[in-house]
Amino acid sequence: MKRHCLALDLKDDPRLIEEYEYWHKAESGWPEIKKSILDAGITEMEIYRTGNRLLMIMETNEQYDETAKAASDAANPKVQEWEQLMWKFQQPLPWAKEGEKWVLMDRIFRL
């Protein structure tokens, strides 16, 4: 298993943040999105929030390939619909590359 930690900001609007959290509750999530995540080899995923900053922790198996996941997502209309909906709430980190949403974080400490 490999762990990936990524960061992203939400728009700093309490109403939008509340709606974003609504879409991430188990009963509100889209089953097609969960399936695309699991099919890619992502075995665990958690998202944490403080203020408008998000931290995503993903655990992946040996089949996970970031490039293949991106290609699969680009070809999946339901994933694209979800991404369009989520972009309503999200904003890139100031140091994100053009078109980049979630930014991979570097581990700087381990106990």
From TrEMBL:
It comes from the Bacteria. One of its GO terms (molecular function) is racemase and epimerase activity, acting on carbohydrates and derivatives. Pfam families: rhaM. This is L-rhamnose mutarotase.
